[in-house]
Amino acid sequence: MNIQLIIIAILFVAAVFYVGRLMYKNLFVKKSCGTNCKCGVDFSAINPDKLSK
Q: Helix, strand, or coil here: 52?
């Protein structure tokens, strides 16, 4: 087997693994936080009385 063919095959497998991992993260990994989340957002400046009108 030619060394160039081996290098191309390794690069192809690495690229397929990389794209597959990106697709898996986008489709199956939850990125949102659940209940009792401490996301670091400060809501103290929001006045709830103005929102209901």
A: coil
Radius of gyration (C-alpha) of the chain in whole angstroms: 24
Torsion-angle region of residue 45: left (phi > 0), alpha (psi -120 to 50) or beta?
A: alpha
User: Which H or E run contains 27?
Assistant: helix 3-28
Threshold 0.70, pTM exceeds: no
Tokens of 34: 């659940």
Q: pLDDT class for 26, splitting at 50, 70, 90?
A: confident
CA-CA distance, 7 to 15, in Å (whole number)?
12
